[in-house]
Design brief:
The protein is an alpha+beta fold. Helices cover 35% and strands 25% of the residues.
Length: 342
């Protein structure tokens, strides 16, 4: 499969200076969701444990009382600023990449901008691109740093899966639900909540930063109807989405070989979906499975926050000089890969 209109990027002077993740206190196990869905599982003659066996998701996090995705995202941003030791007055860009949004207007970014006390001169807006938003936000920030338009950028994301999962369980528990209905909404049950923030700045001023080297993006938007979500539910043709996504990922992987050799990276930090998706990419790209860290068994699919959360948890095991490839596929379908030199 060859995709027209490809985009391959290289960066000269952008570095990841700090990364912070905030995960909720409340744990919801897949066994708990099975218990809530037991009547419909019995009626449809579906065995319990599908989330664990098929997806590999054993638990996910949900915001506890007194917590919220907005406050957690601001907390992550504060941690990223403090870790990098950068004065917030020098931040020129805030990009919010969350799928979760409590309203259509204004942007979620404005609340983050205010909560973080960023200067009036800091441009702020949302980038919405399903689970690829965080990589897209980092890429855009790197381009603006390279261009000299800004000095520092904060890329943030906060997700809240509570409402959509509650409504999905409620809907699936109704009389008349079929096996097809159940499987179409099954991926919603893998979602989790969390928040993350990354601070990017000029590599020339921060020699210990983790340089963004370049990446590749590809689109196969003929598949835009395979996974459609809203606040009330997410409806997915999982088999077709996996098939189309794999075709797109491997097309991007093969075309990127003319610009970079990613066959022997020290870490492959993938968007965290499930065992099925991870196994398919590992096999197709012939990756070393020991270099693919997993967080979805504990945190589920945290949307755009899953890649930075996974990288934040993996950071302590990385050493200067390690090569890290961020890899994601988002509903639509789009794919993006971004290389970092740790």
């Amino acid at each position: 499969m060859r995709v027209a209109g490809n985009a391959t990027s290289t960066y000269r002077n952008a570095a990841l200076l700090s990364l912070a993740a905030v995960t909720p206190d409340r744990v919801t196990t897949s066994a708990e969701l099975d218990a809530r869905l037991q009547p419909v599982l019995d009626r449809l003659r579906l065995p319990p444990g599908l989330l664990q066996r098929i997806a590999g998701v054993h638990e996910r996090r949900n915001w506890a009382e007194g917590q919220s995705f907005g406050a957690a995202t601001i907390e992550a941003g504060e941690k990223a600023l403090a870790e990098a030791g950068v004065d917030r007055a020098r931040v020129g860009l805030l990009v919010n990449t969350s799928v979760t949004r409590p309203h259509l207007e204004p942007s979620v970014a404005v609340g983050m901008h205010h909560g973080l006390g960023l200067p009036s001169s800091a441009v702020n807006f949302d980038i919405a691109n399903a689970c690829l938003g965080f990589i897209n936000g980092m890429s855009l920030a790197a381009q603006l740093i390279d261009a000299g338009q800004i000095e520092y950028a904060l890329v943030v994301d906060g997700e809240d899966a509570d409402q959509v999962q509650h409504r999905t369980v409620e809907r699936l528990s109704r009389d008349g639900t079929t096996r097809a209905d159940f499987m179409r909404e099954f991926p919603t049950l893998t979602l989790g909540s969390g928040a993350a923030a990354a601070l990017l700045g000029p590599a020339e001023s921060h020699p210990s930063g983790h340089r963004l080297l370049g990446g590749v993006t590809r689109a196969a938007t003929q598949f835009h109807g395979l996974c459609v979500g809203s606040a009330s539910g997410m409806y997915t043709d999982a088999k077709a989405l996996l098939r189309g996504g794999m075709q797109l990922v491997m097309a991007a992987w093969q075309e990127a070989r003319t610009h970079a050799d990613w066959s022997d990276m020290d870490r492959y930090v993938m968007h965290q979906v499930s065992d099925v998706h991870t196994d398919a990419i590992v096999k197709a790209a012939k990756l070393d499975r020991s270099r693919v860290p997993l967080t979805y068994p504990r945190f589920g699919n945290v949307g755009p926050a899953s890649i930075p959360i996974t990288l934040a948890h993996e950071a302590a095991s990385l050493t200067p000089g390690d090569r890290v490839l961020l890899m994601g596929v988002g509903s639509g379908i789009n794919t993006a890969m971004l290389e970092l030199a740790w």
